[in-house]
What we know:
The chain is mostly helical and 253 residues long. The protein has 11 helices and no strands. α6 runs parallel beside α11 (225-252).
Amino acid sequence: MSAHTVSNTGVMLGRSMRHITRSMDTIITVTITPIAMMLLFVYVFGGAIQAGTDNYVNYLLPGILLIAIASGIAYTAYRLYGDLQSGIFERFHSMPIARSAVLWGHVLTSLVSNLISVVVIVLVGLLMGFRTSAGPLAWLAVAGILVLFTLALTWLAVIAGLTASSPDGASAFSYPLIFLPFISSAFVPTDTMPAPVEWFAQHQPVTSIVNTIRALFAEQPVGNDIWVALAWLVGILIVAYVCAMAVYHRKIA
């Protein structure tokens, strides 16, 4: 990425972040819902759920973080759709600006806003009794996985924002992504599920991601889960990025 593109991306990031700060309800909504879900599962359902641990919030938190990110990227698709329909893209493209900077501005805004939500949720988790013995390297590894997860889903959101025919359609694509953690090891061990559901849960990406984050927080061996998680995340990120850029170039051609 050239210095010109980096500079242009910084301008687009600043523009998108100003939109976020003027409508803080988006971050609040994305943060409050997972927190409410965490409170519900810990204090209402937690006593009836057999997760093999005395501290259920420790077991639950990784999945809640993924749900928060999956919720947050819906706003990226919505904002991108709004820009496309308003004609602002055409105005940007009439200027001497790197065309990819427009998309990267939205993507980096998603990354920043989702990381803010993640930090708030972790702080609430600490108040609810979440405890970890993870050292700095483990925390960096968790942060890296969450960044990859956010980028992969955000580029999927870009595709939805560029191809949607309505504002509702732009954001509705995230619903299956939000639901996916419920059919994984995020809330209960997969071996408690019926056989067909267990097979799906064990072979979908959220389970390996959740298991990796949970192991890092507990300073336990991550085993093969981390490699499976990274393979899923990098694979989705590359495919989504290539597809999003292809759609984008067709749109502006």
